[in-house]
Write a structure and sequence with these properties.
Layout: E1 2-7, H1 9-23, E2 46-52, E3 55-59, H2 70-88, H3 93-105, E4 110-116, E5 121-127, E6 135-140, E7 146-150, H4 153-159, E8 163-170, E9 176-183, E10 190-195, E11 212-216, E12 222-227, E13 245-250, E14 259-263, E15 276-281, E16 288-295, E17 301-307, E18 319-322, E19 328-334, E20 337-342, E21 350-355, E22 365-368, E23 374-380, E24 384-391, E25 394-401, E26 407-408, E27 416-421, E28 429-435, E29 438-446, E30 451-454, E31 469-477, E32 483-491, E33 502-506, H5 523-526, E34 531-535, H6 545-549, H7 557-572, E35 581-586, H8 589-599, E36 606-610, H9 629-632, H10 638-647, E37 661-667, H11 675-688, E38 695-700, H12 711-728
Parallel strand pairs: 33-34, 33-35, 35-36, 36-37, 37-38
Antiparallel strand pairs: 1-2, 2-3, 4-5, 5-6, 6-7, 8-9, 9-10, 11-12, 12-13, 13-14, 15-16, 16-17, 17-18, 19-20, 20-21, 21-22, 23-24, 24-25, 25-26, 27-28, 28-29, 29-30, 31-32, 32-34
Helix pairs in contact: 1-2, 3-12, 7-8
C-alpha cells in the first residue's frame, strides 16, 4: 500500500479560519439566530491518497487520527460544544430527560452478574434506583442480609472520574473476592483483592488486566489471570493487545514476579501467536483445567487440557483437544468428560462429549445433534450440563443430566434466556430472562422440582412489566428473497398511518444475535408515539453459523441490505415513513447503519451511528484492529481490502448527496473503536451533504464504548438520541421556536 499527502489551498485557509473561530468561540450569539449561537466549525481537508492493489482511495481527514494534535482536539471540542448547544436548546429535551430520570428512579435496584457458592454465599453487582453505578454486594442465601463490598464511587471521589467494576470472582470459599475496576469507560482494569469479612484490601493491585478473567484455585489463596504486556514509551498502538499471558498469582507476592502459565512464548508445548489471547479455566471441584486460545474476536477456539495440580510447575503437560478447524466455540468439564459445542458439519451446532484425560474430537459422542434450534452456550452444574438454545429470536433451555438423555426445560414465557450463574458444586442453574416488554429478572431452575421460578433477587418495579406496550416479530423479505426477522415494539392503540417516529436498530457481526430485551426508560420514547424496531440481520447468530457467515467479510453487504429491507417493511406497512424513520447501530453496527445510509440516503430521515465502526480501511491501525482481523479481514490482502472498502461507510460518502440528519456519538476513552473514526465520518458528511439537515458530533469526554457508563451518562445519551429523532420527525413540542 502506498500513501501520498495532498494539501489544498482551501485547507490552509480553513485551518486559519478555524484558529480564529476557536479563539472567538466565547462570543455572544447573533440574536436573530438563537438556535445556532455559534457556527459549526469546518474541518480542513488534508487528503492522503492510498493505493491498494492498484486502486487509489482518498482519505481527506487522515490527520484526525492524531487525537493528541491540538488542532484536532480543538476541532472536536468545538464540534462537541456546538452539538451540545443545539440539543440542549431543543424544546422538549429537558422534559424528556426528566421523564427518563423519573422512570429510572422509580425502579427497583438493578442486579447483574450473579455468582453463587455451595456454602450459600451469593455475590452480585447492583445499582440502586437513585444510584449512578453498579456496586458489588454479597449475601448469605438469596434471601439473606445484603452486604456492600465495593463501591466505585469511592474511586471517583479520589480521582474525579467515574469508575466501573468490569468483572469480579470470589475465591472458592468466599473469603476473598478479586475484582477489576477501570476509569471513565476505558476498560483499563486494575485487579484488587479484598477480604469479604472486613472489606479490607489484602493484596497489591495488578494493572494491565483489561481482560482479567480471574480464576481462583482450590486453595482460595491463589488465582489465574490475564495480563497485557507492558508497552515501551512510544510503542506502536497496535502492540497493545499482543503477547498477553495468563499468570498464576499467590496472595501476598509481587505480581511482577508471578509465574506465566500460558501465552506467548510461555510453553514449547502450546504455541500461542502474538495476536492470540490465552485463557485458563479451572472450575471448582474439577481435576482438569482448560487452556483456551482465542484468536482475537474469532469464535472458534484452540483448546488444551491439563491437570489443575500441574499448573504453575515446570513442564505442565498440556494436551491438545482441538484446533480452530474443529469449529468448537464452547467447552466444559464434567467429571471425567469434556463437553464441546461445535458447528463442524452442523451449522446450527451440536453438543459432543469426549474424555478429558484422552480427548479425541474426531471420535466424540454426539450428545445433542443438530436440529432447527441453535445451540448457543453451555454451563456445567453439579447435577447436569445446561445448554442455552435459540429458536430464531427466542431462547430455550435444555438440561443434560450426566450419563442420561437430554431433556427440555419448560420456561415461563418466550424471550431471552441467558445463564446468570452455574456452579459445578451446586445443583440447578440461575437464569436471566427478559422479553421485549419485560425487564430482566433472575430465575432459578431446581432439578428436584423441575420448575423455573423467579428468585425475586431482581424484584419487578412499576415500569418493569408494562401492559401499555405490545410487540410483534414479523419477517421482512430482503433483496435476495431471504426472510429477515424484524421485532417491533410500540404502545397499544397506536395508529399505523405512516407518521410514527421510529428508531430501527441493527448490528450483524461476530455471530451475536439481537435478543429480546426491555429497558423501562424506553417508555419515555414509546409513550410519545415512538416505535422501536430491531432488524435481526445476517451477520448475527439468530439462525446459527450459516446466518452469521452470510454477513461476514465479502458477504457483509447482506447485513446492511437486510437492514434496508426491514426499513422498507416498516414504511410499506405504514408503521412510519422515510421522514420519520431513524436508523441506528452501535460499534460494528456502525457498518450497518453507515452503509445503509450511504446506499439509501432517501430511505432515512435520520441516521445515528453510536461509537460506530465507520472507517474500516484504517481500523486495522488502531489498538483493537488486529484482534478484529478474524471478523472483518485485513487490507494486506486484495480480497480483504475489497471487502473492507465495501463495508467502510466513510469511503462511500459522496459529494452533493442529500444525506439524512445525522447524530454521531463517540466516547473519547473508547478502547474498542477509536473516536477518530466517528470524527472523520462527521467531517466528511458535513462537507458532502446538500440536504441542509444537521450533521452533529456528540462526544463524551468521560466515556468509552459504553461499558462501565454511569446511569447519568446513559440517561443523557438516551435523551439526546430520542430528542434528535423527535425533533427531526417533526413531533410537536420538540420543534425550535425562532426568536426564543
Amino acid at each position: 500500500m502506498k500513501s501520498t499527502l495532498k494539501i489544498t489551498f482551501a485547507a490552509v485557509v480553513a485551518v486559519l479560519f478555524l484558529q480564529l473561530a476557536w479563539t472567538c468561540s466565547g462570543l455572544a450569539a447573533d440574536v436573530d439566530q438563537p438556535f445556532k449561537p455559534v457556527e459549526q466549525p469546518e474541518a480542513p481537508v488534508l487528503t492522503v491518497n492510498d493505493t491498494f492493489f492498484g486502486t487509489q482511495v482518498e482519505d481527506p481527514y487522515r490527520y484526525m487520527e492524531s487525537l493528541s494534535d491540538p488542532v484536532v482536539q480543538a476541532w472536536m471540542k468545538a464540534q462537541s460544544d456546538y452539538t451540545r448547544t443545539i440539543l440542549d436548546e431543543i424544546p422538549g429535551r429537558s422534559q424528556l430527560l426528566d421523564r427518563i430520570i423519573t422512570i429510572d428512579s422509580a425502579l427497583s435496584a438493578r442486579v447483574a452478574e450473579v455468582t453463587r457458592l455451595p456454602n450459600g454465599l451469593v455475590f452480585y453487582t447492583k445499582r440502586l434506583p437513585t444510584g449512578n453505578v453498579f456496586k458489588l454486594y454479597m449475601r448469605n442465601g438469596l434471601q439473606g442480609e445484603e452486604k456492600l463490598l465495593v463501591d466505585p464511587e469511592t474511586y471517583a471521589q479520589t480521582t474525579g472520574k467515574p469508575h466501573a467494576i468490569n468483572y469480579f470472582d470470589p475465591s472458592w470459599d468466599g473469603k476473598y473476592v478479586a475484582y477489576g475496576i477501570s476509569a471513565a469507560g476505558s476498560e483499563d482494569a486494575v485487579i484488587h483483592v479484598i477480604d469479604t469479612a472486613t472489606g479490607a484490601e489484602v493484596d497489591k493491585p495488578i494493572d494491565r488486566a483489561q481482560f482479567g478473567e480471574v480464576n481462583w484455585r482450590g486453595d482460595s489463596n491463589s488465582f489465574f489471570y490475564i495480563r497485557l504486556q507492558k508497552l515501551a514509551e512510544g510503542a506502536d498502538p497496535t502492540e497493545r493487545y499482543l503477547k498477553s499471558k495468563v499468570f498464576l498469582h499467590v496472595m501476598g507476592t509481587d505480581p511482577d514476579k508471578d509465574t506465566a502459565i500460558l501465552g506467548y512464548e510461555v510453553s514449547p508445548a502450546v504455541k500461542v501467536a502474538a495476536e492470540e489471547i490465552p485463557i485458563v479455566v479451572a472450575e471448582p471441584g474439577q481435576d482438569y483445567a482448560l487452556g483456551l486460545i482465542v484468536n482475537g474476536v474469532q469464535n472458534e477456539l484452540t483448546i488444551y487440557v491439563a491437570p489443575v495440580a500441574t499448573l504453575g510447575s515446570a513442564g505442565t503437560p498440556w494436551k491438545k483437544v482441538c484446533s480452530v478447524d474443529d469449529a468448537v466455540t464452547g467447552a466444559a468439564v464434567g467429571g471425567s468428560d469434556l463437553y464441546l459445542l461445535t458447528h463442524k458439519d452442523a451449522p446450527r451446532f451440536k453438543l459432543v462429549r469426549t474424555s478429558v484425560t484422552a480427548p479425541e474430537v474426531s471420535k466424540a459422542d454426539v450428545v445433542i445433534p443438530q436440529s432447527t434450534q441453535v445451540l448457543a452456550a453451555i454451563a456445567p452444574a453439579k447435577d447436569a450440563l445446561y445448554v442455552q438454545t435459540r429458536d430464531g429470536v427466542f431462547g430455550k433451555l435444555i438440561r443434560v443430566p450426566y450419563g442420561a438423555a437430554p431433556e427440555a426445560v419448560a420456561l415461563p414465557f418466550d424471550g431471552t434466556v441467558n445463564f446468570a450463574a452455574a456452579e459445578p458444586r451446586c445443583d440447578g442453574v440461575l437464569l436471566t430472562m427478559a422479553a421485549w416488554t419485560r425487564a430482566p429478572q433472575i430465575y432459578s431452575y431446581d432439578p428436584s422440582t423441575k420448575k423455573v421460578v423467579n428468585t425475586e433477587l431482581q424484584p419487578a418495579a412499576a415500569f418493569d412489566l408494562p401492559d401499555s406496550l405490545e410487540s410483534v416479530v414479523v419477517m421482512a423479505k430482503s433483496y435476495d428473497g431471504t426472510m429477515v426477522p424484524l421485532s417491533i415494539v410500540y404502545k397499544k392503540g397506536i395508529k399505523m398511518d405512516g407518521t410514527n417516529p421510529t428508531l430501527l436498530s441493527g448490528y450483524g457481526s461476530y455471530g451475536i444475535p439481537q435478543e429480546p430485551w426491555y429497558v423501562p426508560r424506553m417508555l419515555a420514547f414509546l409513550e410519545r408515539g415512538g416505535i422501536l424496531a430491531t432488524a435481526h440481520v445476517r451477520g448475527g447468530g439468530e439462525f446459527g453459523e450459516e446466518w452469521y457467515r452470510a454477513g461476514y467479510k465479502d458477504t457483509k453487504p447482506n447485513t446492511w441490505k437486510d437492514f434496508i429491507a426491514c426499513a422498507e417493511y416498516l414504511i410499506d406497512n405504514k408503521y412510519t415513513s422515510p421522514a420519520q424513520l431513524a436508523g441506528t447501530g452501535g460499534s460494528a453496527g456502525g457498518i450497518t447503519i453507515g452503509r445503509a445510509m450511504t446506499d439509501r440516503p432517501d430511505l432515512f430521515g435520520m441516521a445515528i451511528p453510536q461509537v460506530g465502526s465507520l472507517d474500516m480501511l484504517r481500523a486495522e491501525t488502531s489498538p483493537n484492529g488486529i484482534p478484529n482481523i478474524p471478523e472483518f479481514g485485513t487490507v494486506k490482502t486484495e480480497a480483504g481490502f475489497k471487502a473492507l472498502f465495501e463495508m467502510s461507510a466513510y469511503h462511500h460518502v459522496k459529494d452533493g448527496v442529500k444525506y439524512p440528519a445525522v447524530l454521531l456519538t463517540a466516547g473519547m476513552n473508547d478502547p474498542r473503536v477509536e473516536p477518530w473514526e466517528t470524527a472523520k465520518m462527521a467531517a466528511r458528511l458535513q462537507a458532502a451533504s446538500t440536504s441542509g439537515k444537521p450533521i452533529l458530533l456528540r462526544l463524551d469526554y468521560e466515556g468509552g464504548h459504553g461499558i462501565g457508563a454511569t446511569k447519568k451518562q446513559i440517561e443523557e445519551e438516551a435523551a439526546d438520541v430520542w430528542t434528535f429523532v423527535l425533533w427531526q420527525s417533526g413531533v410537536q413540542g420538540f420543534q425550535p421556536v425562532p426568536g426564543k
